[in-house]
Design a protein that fits this description.
Aminopeptidase, OB fold (Dihydrolipoamide Acetyltransferase, E2P), 28% strand, globular, disordered C terminus, zinc, metal-binding
Length: 373
């Protein structure tokens, strides 16, 4: 696919500043992306795998936000489980893309910028912009496809989902192949890694799953299956892709926000399918007296949630994706439960992170006088 002229021609996976990589060879090295306050080189660890036969080159990156380390655990597991016997092509594995933020357990760089809003970067810009340009030149410009692994932001969790520009045929191809139950359609924010990589001819998707500062077993399992699926779809690995019985492409999502300050009682969990007017969370004071209730505005699925039940007015509580026309909430729930596959196990495990209580009729109308919605 074409590359934008200002970035020059696509680079070879075989030739790096650290040395050449022969067909059939795997090499570990460190790519210099910046310098620290002390003047030491900041070098991110990379593993490059090259098959004996030519084929596509795919990058898999994690910790673009330095506190989102589920993907770091995924790439570590991929490197050590011995399942990456490539038939053709090449693989660029980057367990920590944003090392300066990773070392600080932070989402952001020391200059307070979000690296995932600074692509494709520039040679003479800010710290973040220069790092972005180096990453773009050395990783994206060698790749034909990309997979970037993320989690929810701090004090939130996400049910595993793919973010992808489904209007791009090759992006849609690998998004479907990844095999997540949920796909959020969109180009991504301006300056984001996946949007800018896709724009210059490297179709890239993002997986979102789990929480910051953790390596969660089911999220790792889901991501590893997804990456393997993509490599199989591209003919780089043996085997058939494993796709759930139903994949839902979400065109519209909303964050339901707290109307009052208080302490939340959750009625749903990440990944749950809900119907219009279903109770999502009840807001009470610290003595348990109801103040307000959040209800689903449409049939949808819970993409993500806050993990902190104490809220002030306007704080995000639940990220809800609207089910597309023709998709029945009951059927989606039934397909998942009958399949008894990874999606059902994911839902059950993530549910244990929340105290979820069904809202009964007896609890309705228990608010203080004049204190309910």
């Amino acid at each position: 696919m074409p590359r934008a002229s200002r970035f020059g021609k696509k680079k070879s996976i075989a030739t790096w500043d650290e040395g050449d990589i022969a067909p059939g060879e795997t090499r570990n090295f460190r790519l210099t992306v910046s310098e620290s306050y002390s003047g030491m080189n900041v070098r991110i660890p990379i593993q490059v795998r090259r098959a004996k036969r030519e084929g596509p080159t795919v990058f898999v990156t994690a910790a673009l936000h330095g506190d989102e380390i589920n993907g770091t655990g995924v790439i570590r597991q991929m490197i050590h489980d011995g399942a990456l016997d490539l038939k053709c092509g090449g693989l660029i594995l980057v367990p920590v893309l944003n090392l300066l933020a990773f070392d600080r357990h932070s989402r952001y760089l020391p200059d307070r910028r979000d690296l995932n809003r600074c692509f494709p970067g520039s040679l003479g810009g800010s710290l973040a912009s220069r790092m972005a340009r180096r990453i773009f030149d050395e990783i994206v410009m060698r790749s034909d496809y990309g997979i970037d692994l993320h989690t929810a932001a701090v004090r939130r969790t996400n049910y595993p989902n793919i973010r992808a520009d489904m209007g791009n045929a090759e992006v849609a191809r690998i998004a479907h192949a990844f095999g997540s139950e949920l796909v959020l359609n969109g180009k991504g924010p301006k300056g984001s890694f996946r949007r800018e990589a896709t724009s210059i001819g490297c179709p890239t998707i993002v997986m979102e799953g789990g929480e910051v500062w953790k390596v969660e077993p089911r999220i790792v399992e889901s991501a590893m299956k997804g990456v393997t699926n993509v490599l199989r779809e591209l003919g780089m690995l043996e085997g058939e892709t494993e796709i759930p019985p139903q994949q839902t492409v979400l065109e519209k999502t909303v964050w339901l926000r707290a109307e009052r300050g208080g302490f939340l009682q959750f009625h749903v969990a990440p990944g749950e399918v809900v119907v219009r007017e279903q109770a999502i969370a009840t807001n009470t004071n610290l003595l348990g007296v109801e103040r307000s209730v959040l209800y689903a505005p449409f049939d949808g699925v819970v993409i993500g949630m806050t993990t902190l039940p104490a809220v002030t007015p306007g704080e995000p509580v639940c990220h809800l994706g609207r089910l597309p026309r023709g998709t029945k909430a009951a059927q989606l729930s039934q397909d998942r439960s009958e399949d008894e596959g990874l999606e059902e196990r994911l839902f059950e495990e993530l549910s244990t992170n929340f105290m979820v209580v069904e809202r009964s009729d007896e609890t309705e109308g228990m608010g203080e006088t004049g204190d309910s919605e």
